[in-house]
């Protein structure tokens, strides 16, 4: 089924290549996959992307949204994109590090606070060098990397105050090394699985806990299967919209610019909307019965500092944090 779906998507993209003389009369379609629910404030940014691209392209380029991972796990959609399918996915740097190692630092623990700092990194000349390297080596094109989803916290059924409290706790996390090493350093046992499976895995005691940002955790109704939200803020989750490099290259230059410009604008819409929604979401989680705890994060910062050196990001960390600070 995956092969059939992929062939259909590639064929759809190939229509524009087969008729270059009629390029302005052809509808280009980009399908965007995200693990997020439609209730997530970042999804408003995706909706803004749909309308922005339609207007800026004069209707020549259509964007379709597929929430709740309807096109499959992020890794599968990335492979579809690499094969030339007109698909895009909202994905973290840890997964992109499989192709270009530097991207992994964007998901490293306690890299920066809030949105504005990591946004500076995502639009910097240094980051654009990684974008070019990803395109050339993996045939993946970053449209923008300013889709901020908030800081990630711990969702557990036991109270957590220090890394020692996480000993033996099976915690869901994405499978990229920067994530699994962070969870390990925090004291838990990393258990990679698709985010769509987390609710049932908690319900069936396949895992004991999860780590996720507030909008995603609320959207997945993790408050129904966990009791404690511990605000560690261990990962400041910045993600990107990534599509097929070969499909992107097949587009007219003006539509390439439309995609990148509108993705950046829409990322800001979603990111600032996320920032403005966090306090309300926290209040709603408390009202649902969750205990929300603010802990001393320094012990977690100290515990996870080894992740940078272990993954070879020590020198790069200093450079990135200078950019994030505006220096």
UniProtKB/TrEMBL annotation:
InterPro entries the record matches: DctP_fam, TRAP_DctP, TRAP_DctP_sf
GO BP annotation list: transmembrane transport
Gene Ontology terms: cellular component: outer membrane-bounded periplasmic space
Residue stretches spanning the membrane: none
Family annotation (NCBIfam families): TRAP_S1
Name assigned to this protein: C4-dicarboxylate ABC transporter
Native source species: Paradevosia tibetensis
Taxonomic path: Bacteria, Pseudomonadati, Pseudomonadota, Alphaproteobacteria, Hyphomicrobiales
């Amino acid at each position: 089924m995956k092969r059939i779906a992929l062939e259909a998507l590639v064929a759809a993209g190939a229509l524009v290549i087969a008729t270059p003389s009629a390029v302005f009369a052809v509808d280009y379609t980009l399908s965007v996959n995200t693990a997020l629910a439609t209730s997530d404030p970042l999804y408003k940014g995706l909706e803004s992307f749909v309308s922005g691209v339609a207007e800026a392209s004069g209707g020549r380029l259509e964007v379709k949204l597929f929430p709740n991972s309807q096109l499959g796990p992020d890794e599968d959609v990335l492979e579809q994109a690499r094969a030339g399918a007109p698909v895009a996915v909202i994905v973290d740097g840890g997964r992109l590090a499989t192709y270009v190692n530097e991207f992994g630092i964007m998901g490293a623990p306690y890299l920066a606070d809030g949105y504005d700092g990591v946004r500076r990194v995502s639009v910097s000349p240094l980051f654009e060098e990684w974008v070019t390297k990803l395109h050339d080596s993996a045939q993946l094109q970053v449209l923008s990397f300013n889709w901020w989803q908030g800081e990630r916290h711990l969702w557990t059924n036991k109270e957590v105050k220090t890394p020692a409290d996480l000993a033996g706790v099976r915690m869901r996390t994405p499978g990229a090394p920067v994530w699994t090493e962070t969870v390990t350093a925090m004291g838990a046992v990393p258990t990679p699985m698709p985010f769509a499976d987390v609710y049932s895995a908690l319900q069936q005691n396949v895992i004991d806990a999860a780590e996720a940002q507030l909008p995603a955790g609320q959207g997945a109704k993790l408050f129904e299967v966990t009791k404690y939200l511990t605000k560690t803020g261990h990962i400041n989750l910045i993600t990107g919209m990534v599509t097929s490099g070969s499909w992107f290259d097949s587009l007219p230059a003006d539509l390439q610019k439309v995609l990148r410009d509108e993705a950046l604008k829409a990322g800001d819409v979603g990111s600032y909307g996320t920032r403005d929604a966090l306090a309300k979401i926290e209040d709603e989680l408390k009202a649902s019965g969750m205990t929300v705890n603010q802990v001393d994060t320094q012990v977690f910062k100290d515990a996870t500092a080894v992740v940078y050196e272990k993954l070879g990001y020590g020198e790069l960390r200093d450079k990135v944090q200078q950019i994030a600070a505006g220096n």
